[in-house]
Amino acid sequence: MADLTTDFVGIKSPNPFWLASAPPTDKEYNVRRAFEAGWGGVVWKTLGEAGPPIVNVNGPRYGAIWGADRRLLGLNNIELITDRPLEVNLREIKAVKRDYPDRAMVVSLMVPCEEEAWKAILPLVEETGADGVELNFGCPHGMSERGMGSAVGQVPEYIEMVTRWVKQNTRMPCIVKLTPNITDIKKPAAAALAGGADAVSLINTINSITSVDLDLFAPEPTIDGKGAHGGYCGPAVKPIALNMVAEIARTPELAHLPISGIGGVTTWRDAAEFMALGAGNVQVCTAAMTYGFKIVQEMISGLSDYMDKKGMAATSELVGRAVPNLSDWQHLNLNYVAKARINQDLCISCGRCFAACEDTSHQAISMSPERVFEVKDDECVACNLCVNVCPVEDCITMEQMPAGAVDPRTGRKVAAEYANWTTHPNNPGAVKAAE
Amino acid sequence: MDAKALAEGVIAGRLNADELAAGFTDLHAPLTDHEAVVAADRCYFCHDAPCITACPTDIDIPLFIRQIATGTPDAAAKTILSQNILGGMCARVCPTETLCEESCVREMAEGKPVEIGRLQRYATDGLMAKGVHPFRRADPTGRKIAVVGAGPAGLACAHRLAMKGHDVVVFDAREKPGGLNEYGIAAYKSTEDFAAREVDWLMQIGGIQMQTGKAVGRDITLEELRADHDAVFLGIGLGGVNALSAPGAEKDGVLDAVGFIADLRQTPDLSALPVGRDVVVIGGGMTAVDAAVQSKLLGALNVTIVYRRGRARMNASRYEQELAASKGVRIICNASPVAVHGNGSVREIEFEYTDDALQPTGQTFRLAADQVFKAIGQSLTGADLPDLAGGKIAVTGAGRTSLDGVWAGGDCAAGGEDLTVTAVAQGRDAAEDIHAALAT
Question: What positions does the domain 4Fe-4S ferredoxin-type occupy (chain A) (predicted)?
Fold first, then answer.
């Protein structure tokens, strides 16, 4: 069995599966259950400064979208940071860490954008024996209206400033949690790095309105007839999160900044994908909130099996493996030619490929009166839509044309050599360079 | 076990009230809201969907299922009912396993089709429960049309004609409208008086006058109808029952299956309906299965269906055969009745094995029987009908007969499949043709 132990910025954990700062990590009772279930670490739900605790709404905090059979695909929340007294949280963190010394215990923090506030809280956290802190610069609702959370995370200068304060006032590793509600994720990541952050974690939740009550004409979740935007998470956000993680991982200036991947991790496979794109570990919330803590057992066995099959002994062999293959469009090989292939033995004749191609794409699939569907190679551009809409896995595949074969669509021979847009004759920039 | 359960002869009350209620409950429970959404989600929304092609009434099945999936089951019901005004009954009685569901691509993919029939029932039941009739009658045309027979074909024809603004008079020989929906379908497929409720709901369109207890040929002639109306539609079904030619067939206890089924459907108290301990049903169609299964549900101890050809030739679908088997009905194939034995009442029935070409083999066997139901086909009855073809009314196009201004559809018309849903399609299409003919 592969070794799943991870060392993330000096914080060791028996596996790369951490629970993200969120309701599942709000108190001792939950976190003990999580550790008993096998989670490698937790990021304790965000603590605020001492004083009167935060209040939450007393109506619904969550909204959701569902797929088939009410499978939860996306979750939205308007819950704020912990609403329990600071001293209670600190006491519990200390007790849990003492009992589970092998697990990662990171504490999420969000206090006002003043150095004194950070100076005040950091020693209190250090005293618990926690392994590190995560700066919540991502929370997009409620706290951001008070100048915290994503209000900080959307201004790179603030990120750098606060990160520096934290690094100057504690020996603990500092992870900066980034908001996706910005245009270029590289900017806040660079700011965190400049401020001395040991790592970044991303993504926090995405600004969202999950649905509208069409009788009340109110956004959901609805509190007394009104709704406020919340933070979106769950399987639906994974592609957005993967891209943001990868953007950081493939940028040379940021390449050595460790990343804790967050965003819709639901299965071992999701975790492996985040790690392949550069995440040193992953944080999970929605999947645990949907299915309970036990899912970590599948994540552990799945990742372990996968690594065994691939001959990987340690997670470090997986981390970043896919980063070199992330390219810009302009560098994709335009001489690569593929055609869709329909496996007639697997085809169930639903005709979805035909409808999709005929109505919305390239009219490259024919339909016989007997409902046999075939690809017209002289029209097929290998767009992959038929593969995506086919309900049968592996029924339609994309087959590469060998070099030397004639593409019936263009009448040209498939070239063996690589050629991209930067040198393409239709590219005005390329033509100029050639002249 | 009650002593009556084992008693010889044809007696009532073999089972107690709870056992009867359990047996005659809905064959398929209605889908709940959540079940319907889950079932609807399985539909792939196929292009030019095979299920539509397989439906005799061409219901846009993927569309109505998508309407259920998106939370608008009433819109789904309208999609169904615009093609098939008896969509509620068809959802219950259609052999979906040989029609829409057989052609479902998920049947090919995983042997488990989308539950089209149950989804159709979910949508139509919901709308009917609200008392909503989603169609509106056009301005009156002043034309008057006679529809003979208030079965599926006649009702579908009458509704479509009324919707077009024509005045329709429906004549039916029986006391209640509905035809086979009311008198001829297994009780567990049409529970809670559904057939009658559906007719009441259908009549909400307005413009339809129902005259029951009036038989053409007895109370009124086709000639009179033609003289008094702008058009006549014949949906008279098959009123006759084929006779059993074996010696002894006249003995007591040898009955028509359709009569038994009708009695069962009309009885207010199933525990008062007598049934034999040993029941033999002769035939291989849906009627045979309906009679056999219901005999079993009434408490008959031994029920056997005997069919003269091989199992593959049975008109009852594989699903119906399995239903019968699951209720404890034994099916014997390749055997023809040769004699009915008994002193006054039937005690035994003798069969001879026959090969698939119906050649006798000389080998015989006897089955104990205190009740024998004949389900060996029905035939057209009536005088002065339009020209016949193969024992049924010859039709061309959308049900045009040899007589001017007379259309026919349903089981009485040649070329049909003897299915409720086919009858509905023919009634509907004849109405469209009548409407077009009257407009010219």
Answer: 338-370, 371-401
pLDDT tens, position by position, A152-194: 899 999 999 999 999 999 999 999 999 999 999 999 999 999 9
B47 vs A391: CB contact, 8 Å cut-off?
Answer: no
Instruction: Give A242-284 pLDDT, tens digit per residue.
Output: 999 999 999 999 999 999 999 999 999 999 999 999 999 999 9
Task: Single out the residue in A309, A325, A341 at which a domain terminates.
Answer: A325
Task: Confirm or reject contact between B105 and chain A (CB < 8 A).
Answer: yes
A132 pLDDT higher than 60: yes
Q: How far apart are CA A293 and CA A282, in angstroms?
A: 15
What pTM, to 2 d.p., does this model score? 0.89
Name the pairing type of β-strands A174-177 and A199-202: parallel
Residues of A in contact with B105 (CB under 8 A): 348-350
- Cα-based angle B401, B404, B406 (whole degrees, multiple of 5): 55
CATH number, domain at A398?
A: 3.30.70.20
Q: What are the residues facing A133 on neighbouring strands? A: A107, A174
**C-alpha pair distances (Å), B204 with each of B131, B143, B177, B325:** 9, 19, 15, 40
The Cα–Cα gap between A30 and B74 comes to 45
Residues A247-268, buried b or exposed e (16+ Cβ, 10 A)?
Answer: bbbbeeebeebbbbbbbbbbeb
Q: Collect all residues with Cβ–Cβ distance below 8 Å to B76 and sequence separation of at least 6.
A: B63, B64, B65, B67, B68, B119, B123
Query: What pLDDT is stored for residue B276 in this prediction?
Result: 97
What's the rounded Cα separation, in Å, for the pair B250 and B248? Answer: 5
Residue ranges, chain B, pLDDT below 50? none
Please judge whether A371 and B50 are an interchain contact, meaning their C-beta atoms are less than 8 angstroms apart: yes
Among the partner residues A68, A352, A392, nearest to B47 by beta-carbon distance: A352
Q: Name the amino acid, one letter, at B132.
A: V
The count of domains in chain B is: 3
Of the three residues A297, A325, A353, the one that is the final residue of a domain is A325
Cβ proximity of A385 and A357 under 8 Å: yes
Question: Looking at the structure, do residues B228 and B262 belong to the same domain, yes or no?
Answer: no
Tokens of A90: 């600190």
Residue contact A351–B108, C-beta within 8 A: no
Same domain, A315 and A372: no
Are both A418 and A298 inside the same structural domain?
no
Q: Using CA atoms, how far apart are residues B72 and A222, in angstroms rounded to an integer?
A: 23
Average of per-residue pLDDT values in chain B: 95
The range of the structural domain enclosing residue B69 comes to 33-129
Number of H helices, E strands in chain A: 13, 20
> Could you tell me the two tokens for A186?
């590289």
- Residue-wise pLDDT for A39-48, tens only, equals 999 999 999 9
Same domain? A214 vs A228? yes
Partner-chain contact B109 A367, CB within 8 Å: no
Query: Model ipTM?
Result: 0.83
Query: What CATH number should be reported for the domain holding residue B42?
Result: 1.10.1060.10
Identity of the amino acid at B74 = D
Which chain A residues contact residue B106 at CB under 8 A?
348
Q: Which residues contact B115 (CB under 8 A, 6 or more apart)?
A: B31, B39, B42, B101
A349 and B41 within 8 Å at the Cβ level: the answer is: no
What pairs with residue B252 in β-bridges? B345
- Cβ of A53 under 8 Å from any chain B Cβ? no
Instruction: Please write the tens of the pLDDT for every residue from A52-62.
Output: 999 999 999 99
Sign for the CA dihedral angle at A193, A197, A203, A209 comes to negative
Evaluate whether residue A56 is within a structural domain: yes
Q: How many Å lie between the alpha carbon of A395 and the closest alpha carbon of chain B?
A: 11
CB contacts, 8 Å: B48 with chain A: 351, 367, 371
Concatenated DSSP letters of A2-50 = -B--EEETTEEESSSEEE-SSGGGSSHHHHHHHHHHT-SEEEEEEE--S
Residue A203 binned pLDDT confidence (cut-offs 50, 70, 90): very high
